Amino acid sequence: xxxxxxxxxxxxxxxxxxxxxxxxxxxxxxxxxxxxxxxxxxxxxxxxxxxxxxxxxxxxxxxxxxxxxxxxxxxxxxxxxxxxxxxxxxxxxxxxxxxxxxxxxxxxxxxxxxxxxxxxxxxxxxxxxxxxxxxxxxxxxxxxxxxxxxxxxxxxxxxxxxxxxxxxxxxxxxxxxxxxxxxxxxxxxxxxxxxxxxxxxxxxxxxxxxxxxxxxxxxxxxxxxxxxxxxxxxxxxxxxxxxxxxxxxxxxxxxxxxxxxxxxxxxxxxx
Length: 271
Hints:
alpha+beta
């Protein structure tokens, strides 16, 4: 009986001593934080998507208050979040440009020829390392869905034709899918831009091979450039690059493109 009593007394004494020590340590090592950090943290999206460029919402909140990050940096929170942060920091009128992801490839299984049967780990990065992708087009989407796995918002899915599609009601333009794509096919753009965009990444000048590899690939016929009344298209990089200060969304380049590589951004990004 005495042994049990002594054990209980010792346990209580140790717990008391540890509690006192923890209280002392908390006081000694306490780091005061700006109350604005917690206020900013409360208005953030809380999804820790990393679209702001920081490890998570806590890190971003601290950086914003210190002035190391812009108050409109939370892409997931959008304009409302930027407005609230501006009010907390006394910087009213901060604007945010909505972003969205665009997949610059149309090479699904109906258009792009397969290189071989892939039996390895079903990730795009693995297939890229093993055989430079699964399609004959070295620039084409592999289609195993690394972008889907990386999307915090569930905004991407792979269709039965093997090509990812984006749900623009959910996409916030955080950029996680961009980092996950080993082919660098996904781009973040301002979703309020109007004009044409090329959904292809094949910069090769081998027109015959492009035709063989993918019927949806740009084979550098330059018809879009010649038909553009505003001279807004440059092909020097191997793909149509649009100058949005000149483009009027007239659609002449889209009509002229024999392989339907060009689309209007406002038709691609539909909210």
